[in-house]
């Protein structure tokens, strides 16, 4: 009895995500699925690196200790992630799940980490053969919630273990393979929106390619909230197996970066499955010549080269997408995404956030495409900056992460913005003061101090006063400096105007 695999692999970015971070490899000996994570931190790069590290296991005769080979390949993929993060710290946080099967006749090795899943359909019964490395799964294991409650738990996507470049031990399991078994590997883009009963119905479609297409369609009809990737593989007793491996998702390099279709029907109709030729598998005495092997190895080597090139391009693209710097754009102090310059006439940067100041000089950052009709702030013009900082902003401040660029903007608003020009004061008008009133005197007929009305007071008795002493000479006052008026404000140099 010769057991071989008949397989199909499909991947779709879904109806919400702008790009596909899943990567999948399906071959005669190796089935591997990686769900990248990290968003702007290049999850798609992480999934490509891990799949590239496993691809060499897809040889005609893996033999030996399957789990050791899987473990070593996973370690290489994890080390590749660590090397990329070390070379570009902006990629810190990228990672990937992994579920992979290494097939060898009536036995297979399974490696798993993360929340991608493996299922086995045997004798009409569907069984999950992997255990999610998630927070909600720990709650289920502790009896705090049920499996049904875990399916709708708000933290169901919180992963406890993944390949992120840090040391981690994946789950490794040996299993027996039987003719008639059907295996499904899938990302959570399928298992989250589609129930296990519905997955079972789709897996009962005899043809593996049609079954895989149906699973993708079900995920899209469920809203397609995430990238969705599946591998469907049958263990069959046959002399014929498939010739070439299937690459799909980010690792294939053909992910469409246009806007997602508005409907699941449009997405399903746009999906074009790839089919592969079958090849004869000869039970091997060692002495028989195997001319097919060299061709297969050449194809695998070419596939690995393509994977490495695609991974390098993806890393370069992610570096550009995750680089931010502060400069002037159309007169406004802005945070740009990308790098300065252009390539073949194509700008390598775009405005991302624009500075805006309110009446209290508090900084707000608005999206470059946000409408500006009803803003409660005024765009931060480069001419509002002090002349010394203005030249630096026009030239562009040092680039880095988005948080770094936001910090630079906040510092500019705090210490480099000119004060608001004072409004001109009206000239004061002078008014003549009225003459002082006459001093009060005794009214006519009023008695004086002697008691006789109308009679002047007599002079006081006593010796006549002598000559008055001369007052002491006052010191000569020191000269005082007269303060000059402050220079008038100069808009754009010493102050800024606001409308």
In short:
The chain crosses the membrane at residues 298-316. This protein is of the alpha+beta class and 499 residues long.
Helices and strands in order:
Layout lengths: L2 E10 L9 E5 L3 E8 L5 H12 L11 H22 L7 E2 L1 E7 L2 E7 L3 E6 L2 E4 L6 H7 L5 H5 L19 E6 L5 E5 L1 H4 L4 H8 L4 H14 L6 E10 L2 E3 L3 E4 L14 H7 L7 E3 L10 H31 L2 E6 L2 E12 L2 E12 L5 E5 L10 E2 L7 H9 L6 H14 L84
Antiparallel strand pairs: 1-11, 2-3, 2-13, 3-4, 3-5, 5-6, 6-9, 7-8, 7-10, 10-11, 12-14, 15-16, 16-17, 17-18, 17-19
Helix pairs in contact: 1-2, 1-9, 6-7, 7-8
What class would the helix/strand composition place it in?
Answer: alpha+beta
Through-space gap between termini: 86 Å
Shape: elongated
Radius of gyration: 41 Å
Indicate the CATH topology of the largest domain.
Phosphatase 2c, domain 1
- The number of domains is 2
CATH class value of the largest domain: Alpha Beta
Q: Note the main sheet.
A: 7 strands, antiparallel
- The CATH architecture term of the largest domain is 4-Layer Sandwich
Provide a count of the helices: 11
Please give the number of β-strands.
19
Mean pLDDT: 81
The percentage helix is 25-40%
Question: pLDDT under 50 segments (min length 5)?
Answer: 262-291
CATH superfamily of the largest domain: PPM-type phosphatase domain
Please indicate the percent range of residues in DSSP E strands (runs of 2 or more). 15-25%
State the order of secondary-structure elements, H for helix, E for strand.
EEEHHEEEEEHHEEHHHEEEHEHEEEEEHH
Catalytic activity: O-phospho-L-seryl-[protein] + H2O = L-seryl-[protein] + phosphate; O-phospho-L-threonyl-[protein] + H2O = L-threonyl-[protein] + phosphate
Region (Disordered): 248-293, 419-499
Organism: Mycolicibacterium agri (Mycobacterium agri)
Protein name: Serine/threonine protein phosphatase PstP
